[in-house]
Predict the structure.
Amino acid sequence: MTATLATGSGSGSPAHDDRPARNRRNSGGRAPHRRGGRQVIPHIILAAFIVYFALPFWWLIVASTKSQQTLFDGKTSPLWFSGDFDLFSNIGALFTYSGGLYAHWLGNSFLYAIAGGVGATVLSVLAGYGFSMYGFRGRRVFFAVVLGSVMVPATVLVIPLFVMMSGAHLTNTIWAIILPSMLNPFAVYLMKVYTDEAIPPEMVDAARVDGAGEVRIFARVALPLMRPAVVTVLLLSVVGTWNNFFLPLVMFSNPQLFPVTVGLGALQSQAQVNTGGQSLWNLVITGALISIIPLIVSFLTLQRYWQGGLSIGSVK
């Protein structure tokens, strides 16, 4: 027995560790998990999607720097720059074409997108907050109608809208685009769902007990918490109105009222007729590039407001 104790506790021989090898490896030198294969496949998929979505934009940038001769000569790669750099000359020709008609189209798009987007955001925020915070008779029925409206394609409603606007003598006016753009059932649904998660009813009840009115509760308590959803609805509404093509195509016959989408479509049709379809293509491509710059700037500017709403529901 004495020999056994001396052998186990002596300084010359290390003590025997009866733990399994797996436990010893995890406690001492932790072996790294081999997750290389699991991480590579998602990165490859994401890279493929990035290339898929970025390639048309890259082609648009490259094509905007070419003249109408080098654009179709076939001597240069369509995805790389040519020897000449005609971007600024193309921009100058675009804004001087037909007395600066493109600048007028661009201003119309800003007017329709801002007015329609802000109007849709205000109505959606108020409607979503009302559906979430107030119990009134017929709330479920009305909200079911809103959900049903989300599933109706917007193009189906263009002809009925044209009949209504024509009866009200609003065709060929800016209201033919602004008024329909202010109605967004999906935005109402989004605001209702977000308000349910972001604003606890107890907080609203506490504000009422403290004597705050409904308008003050909405402005001081609810609206700051709804900011990420408000910015999301605003961007979706502005982008949807900016990119709308079919509605202004039906509502307008006056080129002075065209947004940039319909204007570029008309310019493209004219380019296909004149001189084999190549005389105005550089203006069409340059105009398309300029028309998406405001949307990119809007997303880059307002994306920080989205990040503020990512933690909703993480803290109870």
Observations:
- Residues 1-15, 310-316 have pLDDT under 50 and may be disordered.
- Residues 219 and 305 are 18 Å apart (CA to CA).
